[in-house]
Amino acid sequence: MAHHDENFKDNSGFLSIFLGLVVLVSMSALPATIGVIQAFGG
Fold first, then answer.
1. Read out DSSP for 3-29?
2. Where does the sequence pass through the membrane (predicted)?
3. How many CB atoms lie within 10 A of CB 26?
């Protein structure tokens, strides 16, 4: 029998929101990052 823990908190919702925000910020910063690499890289 599986034990049911009343105090268990599921953090998968927070994790998916956090990863979504990271992807959103990185996608919007990608053109600036490419520009900096091209400017200083050669």
1. PPPTT----HHHHHHHHHHHHHHHHHH
2. 12-40
3. 10
